[in-house]
Amino acid sequence: MKFTKMHGIGNDYVYVNCFEETVENPSAVARYVSDRHFGIGSDGLILIKPSKIADCEMDMYNLDGSQGAMCGNGIRCVAKYAYDYGIVNKEHISVATKSGIKYLDLTVENGKVSQVKVNMGSPILTARQIPVVSEKEEVINEPLDVNGKIYYITAVSMGNPHAIVYMDDIDHLDIEKIGPAFENHVAFPDRVNTEFVEVIDEHTVKMRVWERGSGETLACGTGACAVAVASVLNGHVDGDSPVTVKLLGGDLQIFWNRQENLVYMTGPAATVFDGEIDVSFLK
Ligand SMILES: N[C@H](CCC[C@H](N)C(=O)O)C(=O)O
Known about the structure:
Blueprint: E1 2-8, E2 11-17, H1 26-34, E3 44-49, E4 56-62, E5 67-68, H2 72-84, E6 92-97, E7 100-109, E8 112-119, E9 142-146, E10 149-157, E11 161-166, H3 175-183, E12 193-201, E13 204-211, E14 215-217, H4 221-233, E15 243-247, E16 250-257, E17 262-268, E18 270-276
Parallel strand pairs: 2-3, 4-6, 11-12, 13-15
Antiparallel strand pairs: 1-2, 1-18, 3-4, 4-5, 6-7, 7-8, 8-17, 9-10, 10-11, 12-13, 13-14, 15-16, 16-17
Bound molecules: 2,6-diaminopimelic acid.
2,6-diaminopimelic acid binds next to helix 2 and helix 4.
């Protein structure tokens, strides 16, 4: 199986061009290629497929083989791959995902995509659609008991579920312990991606993320969008201008246009190497 290793500010995936390749069992392949010792090493697998309703389709799998409905860092790399490898030859493209069609604007430098702006669609705040179990219609700064400690969470979906928690110091967070406790909490029937956020100023936040199905990653695009929305809703940032979200792997610019109720994410995409791996033994 031919693949291309790419990343969006350190959130790295193995990409397969399914205009040319066929991947029979993507969950098993995702688990194998993601292993950083016995495989290629990545946060998961992303298939770039032909589409009848968009320029291409993104099909995303986490490190544990579970399928994700949307991937912000991933879709920027899908757009870069599609342009750089000749699937498309235009700078405004559409990508179909499990959470709907997304529209992207590409910045091309020296014939290659360097930066991508994505219309990530509207945030979902209704508890039962996220889903999160709550008596409230929306979960904004509501208490949740996690391992006997009360955390105040804001729940947002960008096509995938996110729980946002604000803290004074995220650098010394024992994320390996608290991350799984949130991920598998009974309040989240489909599990959850959890973002731990420190507010820097009214235009800047800093975050770490424990991803559903992948653990701590260096960045999460949908998570950064969910954090920007939650930060506006909780009055932590100025909602009239873009928010700089600082992640371990780099920064993303996120703007929630309240008039349109659309979230825009702008950030880089990078290709690391092309390769080939035998996955024929996987059933
Ligand atoms: N890293 C991705 C999010 C993956 C979400 C996945 N962990 C799930 O929802 O199951 C991003 O950049 O948006």
